[in-house]
Amino acid sequence: MSAYYIKLYLTSVQPTFSGVDVNYEDAKYVLMGVPFDSTSSYRPGSRFAPKTIREISIEMESFDAELSLDFDHTPFHDAGDIKSISSPEDLIKKVSMVVKDTIKDGKIPIIIGGEHTTTLGSVVGLKELSDFNLIFLDAHLDLRDEYPVGARVTHATVLRRCAEKIGCDRIIVIGARAVSKEEVEYADRCKIKVFYYHELIYNNLDKLIDSIGGNAYISIDMDVLDPGLAPGVSNPEPPGISFKELIDILKTIMRNIKLVGMDVTEVNPLYDPSGVTSAYAAAIIKKIVLLNEAKQP
User: What is the CATH classification number for the domain harbouring 203?
Assistant: First the structure.
């Protein structure tokens, strides 16, 4: 096993996620925090999310009664946080290299942002090693070419940059509701599959999402949830889906895909002293891991 860039770019943290930390060599899932929010256009603060999500995760029960599985018994390693990220370009470089290391070693990377720009790093790292679909759950399309003017690598342009890397036909967006005309026109022209929020409300989820399959990377911006439920995000956009609806969507997705990686981004602890948004993020990570474990023979 290599893990060269994991050792080079990451620093260990305490507490670890859920207090679970098997050795890297024995792990199937490898978690990494990305404390970066320098392109945030409204409310910076998501750089604090890896710490708060870990802290609340150890206070949450580990057993999932629905699946009859215990997260604390999963082969899960917390590799710590990527250190000293100086720019969006540095972010992409470091995330891509550690994701590549993880995939080469036959493991599944789990990323906690930080801002949604993080996903581009994962896409760059995965692209060299595997064909995959990107399932992007977000209140926004993140398809602007520049935002602000002159800035091409930001949280508001990340999906456009991903589309340029892997192709529009590899992208599925779920839950979008806060969009610009430019973004909608680009998505239509490029033929990105978009399930808008209003479509999720008025249609059967299975019919909308059952077509998803193959290798897939799941990226979740926490602003996809209704901000009344999850207020601690950088760009809240009411209305939004409920936590139950999100879990139902994830169950449908997980039935049909081979998980190659995932991220949870844009939790902003500065705007949620209750910690409920961080708790939702921790619960999402645990649920996806256990849904994946439930599929194993």
Answer: 3.40.800.10
**DSSP per residue, 178-221:** B--HHHHHHHHHHT-EEEEHHHHHHS-HHHHHTT--EEEEEEEE
Strand partners, 136: 173, 219
Under a CB-based contact definition with an 8 Å cutoff, are residues 116 and 47 in contact?
A: no
Quote the tokens at residue 143: 């398809």
In angstroms, the CA 210 to CA 212 distance is 5
- Report yes or no: 29 and 77 within 8 Å, Cβ to Cβ: yes
Q: How many CA atoms lie within 13 A of 280 on its CB side?
A: 32
pLDDT tens profile 226-262:
999 999 999 999 999 999 999 999 999 999 999 999 9
Inter-CA distances, 95 with 101, 121, 246, Å: 10, 5, 26
Give the span between the Cα atoms of 95 and 97, in whole angstroms. 6
Range of the domain at 244: 4-294
Q: What is the dihedral of CA 34, 79, 288, 49, to 10 degrees?
A: -30
- Identify which of 173, 171, 48 has the alpha carbon closest to the alpha carbon of residue 114: 48
Angstrom distances, CA of residue 189 to CA of 6, 60, 210: 38, 44, 23
177, 185 in Cβ contact below 8 A? no
Q: How far apart are CA 226 and CA 186, in angstroms?
A: 26
CA dihedral 154, 130, 22, 37 (to 10 degrees): 0
Instruction: Encode pLDDT of 45-62 as tens digits.
Output: 999 999 999 999 999 999
Q: For residue 201, how many C-alpha atoms fall within 13 Å in the half-sphere facing its CB?
A: 12
Residue 16: DSSP 8-state:
P
Number of separate domains in the chain:
1
HSE-CB of 62 using CA atoms within 13 angstroms: 11
